[in-house]
Design a protein that fits this description.
four-stranded parallel beta sheet, 485 residues, 4 domains, single chain
């Protein structure tokens, strides 16, 4: 059936998605506009509560991360069917994975629902089905080919000794080449300090204090230092992997990794680099990856206690006499040790809960607890960022002649109004009444599980998590602060 010749009124839903690999296409609002025009011209009633628009760029390769698409498909399965048609700007907006596209469209047809691309009209009869399959195959091939072309181009660049990744610490990028900057002295010092016996954590602390920061502006930790020590770019090389990645993972012995001679100036000699690799390998051999007890041990307070200095979680670090330490302190980014035995921490928290349940005295900040709960429910920062993305897209639609100046001004005003509204909501700190009696009852129930010797540590942990959001351990004051949901 050719839906360009629809003569009876049908109902339709709309699905709108912006491609992650084509930022010059129609904005979401512009896609909706042309879908509305198509529906009006073809006597199709577009249901306002059935317009599904993804926020931000979402890949069509898989539907797993497309929340609105999953909502649409779930609604489409209901009987009687909620609409007759799903309108999309292009079939590739619906899916670029041909197998998924065929499966989903077949499922929709069984419920009497068709998918129509308003920019890709199909002829009537079996030939129309063939054309649709060709379009699906083309969309699927586009993704595969794009990926292969990008990988091939990056490999060719690496083979020519040109950068294939952002510059690491110690380099800037200029004229398609890495240029050493002032941080190069940090790099030299790190390699020398490691060969002279300084550990990864101690190096991270030292150079963090000296002002070194990661490319994201964070303090270096032990993993950052190890990554630098493993990076052959400092010897004038370019590293690339056959799987299409610039060896950015920490799988340093990956057989797919290739090393090419670069065109940039080295910071470290190959002799120094090789000596460091030998020492790192020896350390890995002596202290294996799974020898730290936090990989194996279950304990009642696991994942709940945080450092009062930096907010990181306390982890178990000793298998013979299990004790806790700040995760970031162990990696070198936190300056205050928060060491405490698991036994001592457990006793303190049980005593705290018993006292709270009996007295009803909850030593917590109600406003902070309420705010944390609200932030989890509504991510205003993300909503604001999405509105800013929309601003860029409506500007592009206006520049390309899709929207008029009046439409652009109107859309811009609405988006700015939304941003202002989200910013005000983000700034609010609404207070919520907490029933102490109800919490006392909950605490007594949790204590019953915690004190039951037949219960596993995992079960006790789950019981605690039903009432506790986090526990702050202040080592200097030797105190605990418990925050309830």
């Amino acid at each position: 059936m050719n839906f360009n010749e629809v003569t009876t009124l049908k109902t339709a839903a709309a699905y709108i998605r912006v491609s992650t690999d084509d930022q010059l296409e129609y904005s979401p609002d512009s896609q909706l506009k042309v879908i509305r025009d198509y529906a009006e011209k073809n006597d199709i009633a577009l249901l306002e509560d059935c317009i599904f628009m993804e926020d931000g760029g979402k890949s069509g390769k898989s539907m797993a991360k497309r929340e609105k698409f999953l909502e649409l498909i779930a609604l489409s399965k209901k009987k009687p069917k909620p609409f007759d048609i799903i309108l999309v700007w292009k079939f590739s907006r619906f899916a670029r994975n041909q197998e998924e596209a065929i499966t989903l469209k077949s499922m929709l047809k069984r419920n009497g629902i068709d998918v129509i691309s308003i920019s890709e009209p199909l002829p009537e009869g079996p030939f129309g089905d063939l054309v649709e399959r060709i379009i699906e195959w083309t969309d699927s091939y586009y993704l595969v080919n794009l990926s292969q072309e990008v990988k091939r181009g990056m490999k060719e660049r690496a083979g020519r000794g040109e950068p294939v990744a952002p510059p690491p610490i110690g380099y800037d990028s200029k004229d398609n080449q890495y240029i050493p900057n002032a941080d190069a002295e940090f790099v030299k010092g790190i390699f020398n300090d490691y060969l002279n016996g300084l550990g990864l954590r101690a190096i991270a602390v030292k150079y963090g204090d000296l002002g070194m920061r990661t490319k994201r502006g964070n303090l270096p930790d032990n993993r950052c230092i190890e990554y630098m020590l493993r990076n052959p770019v400092y010897t004038g090389k370019i590293r690339w992997s056959l799987d299409g990645r610039a060896a950015s993972t920490r799988h340093y012995d990956n057989p797919n990794i290739m090393i090419f001679e670069g065109k940039h100036q080295p910071i470290i000699s190959e002799e120094t680099f090789n000596r460091v690799q030998t020492k790192l390998d020896e350390q890995k051999r002596l202290y294996g990856k799974y020898q730290r007890c936090e990989q194996r041990i279950d304990w009642m307070l696991k994942g709940l206690i945080r450092c009062s200095e930096c907010g990181s979680t306390l982890i178990a670090i000793n298998t013979k006499s299990p004790s806790l330490q700040c995760h970031s302190y162990a990696r070198g980014t936190c300056k205050v040790s928060h060491s405490i035995t698991v036994k001592k921490a457990t006793e303190e928290i049980i005593s705290y809960l018993e006292n709270a349940a009996i007295t009803g005295n909850f030593n917590l900040s109600q406003s902070e607890t309420t705010q944390l709960s609200n932030d989890k429910e509504t991510d205003y920062k993300r909503l604001i960022e999405n509105e800013k993305i929309k601003l860029n897209r409506i500007k592009l639609a206006y520049q390309n002649g899709i929207d008029t100046l009046e439409e652009y001004k109107s859309n811009k005003a609405k988006i700015l109004e939304n941003i202002s509204k989200f910013e005000k909501q983000q700034a609010k700190k609404p207070k919520k009444q907490i029933s102490k009696d109800a919490y006392c009852d909950k605490i007594f129930k949790v204590l019953k599980v915690v004190l039951d010797k037949s219960q596993t540590e995992k079960a006790k942990n789950q019981a605690l998590r039903s009432i506790i959001k986090k526990i702050i351990f202040n080592k200097p004051q030797n105190s605990f602060e418990v925050y309830f949901y």
